Amino acid sequence: MATREGTWAYRNDHDDFARTFYRRFGDGVVSSIGVGTYLGDATDERDEAYGEAIRTALESGINVVDTAINYRHQRSERVVGTALADADIDRSAAVVATKGGFVPFDGERPDNPGAYVKREYVDTGLVDRADLVGGQHCIAPAFIDDQLDRSLSNLGLDTVDCYYVHNPETQLAEKSRETVYDQLEATFERLEARADEGDIAHYGVATWDAFRVPADHDSYLSLPEVVERARSAAESAGNTATHFRAIQLPFNVFMADAFTVQSHEGPEGPQSALWFAHEAGLDVFTSASMMQGRLAAEMPDSVEAKLEGETRAQRAINFARSAPGVTCSLVGTGSVEHARENVAAGSYEPLGADAFDAVFE
Q: Which Gene3D superfamilies match (predicted)?
């Protein structure tokens, strides 16, 4: 498990980055650039490249690795576990996050995905058919419990530092918003228990649309309501404080909705997801920092001119981690070359608050 002592010692061993590269996460610190593991084919060759890239990042100053059980059919989790064991760093120095919600395949995509899900999950009783949306998504407590156990095994860890309920807005395709909130609260209560048992340190919600769209959007979920459900879950579990710690959402030059769309009701009126999260004491980990590679090829000239970095990719990364309230921006890191480029982005200053605000004027 990541610890205060381990992460601060790691920071002290990597003190050649620009100001604010390391940021507070609980009583420890994390790099403001993290390793993402979503993209890539489910092949042994890609596993090897990922492993080398993750080890390079961990040994060079990045101490955040993000994955999910469904990424590359469980291969990403397994590679993360191997890379973490092989890297020349202490386990207590790295924050490892994973997610559960999408029913995963095992190593490769089966010829008949529907039959696989039925055989492995529905027929075995791990998933109630009524809880399965689109034939692939479930956030019921028993399923998330099972997925966390599998993730711990894949990663070879005793504790996951942050466990996310993955894209709960997927459930809105077939269920009412109130039903989804109720389901989240029940699952949060189970995760509070798993935190008490030491299997996770914190939990949160990883989203794609839910927190960055207007309140009248079909995929909208209220962040204030989700936070309130987490507090209720903690109380039901007998905890004096919730272990709900973080949210994850996309943020980049072309997808800045988390900063610009004010759809979450705060004490003084509607707020953006970033602003509400900041005031609620939540850490924000952003995904899609490179927009799956698009930003390496194009970026608005007026924005790019304000950003520091030797390459366009570095400038795109530095835009994402400049947003107020962002703890860490995740970047797909599938090769050693990408890992080194991403690490080097941290040697440049992010935008200050005024300069960042000016981008949107």
A: NADP-dependent oxidoreductase domain
Where are the chain's structural domains?
4-359
Q: Residue 357 is encoded by which pair of tokens?
A: 């605000």
Mind listing the pLDDT tens digit for each residue in 118-157? 999 999 999 999 999 999 999 999 999 999 999 999 999 9
Helix (H), strand (E) at residue 82: helix 75-86
Residue 273, H or E segment: helix 273-279
Q: What is the fold of 4-359? A: TIM Barrel (3.20.20)
Instruction: State pTM to two decimals.
Output: 0.97
Helix and strand counts by DSSP (H, E) for the chain: 13, 12
Strands 33-36, 64-66: pairing kind = parallel
Scored b (16 or more CB within 10 A) or e, 310-321 reads: eebbbbbbbbbb
Alpha-carbon distance of 192 to 282, in angstroms, equals 16
Amino acid letter, 56 = T
Q: 230, 221, 255, 289: which is closest to 64 by C-alpha? A: 289
Query: Can you say whether residue 317 is alpha, beta or left, with left for phi > 0 and alpha for psi between -120 and 50 degrees?
Result: alpha
- Its sign, for the CA torsion 92, 166, 203, 104, is negative
Q: Which two tokens stand for residue 29?
A: 């610190």
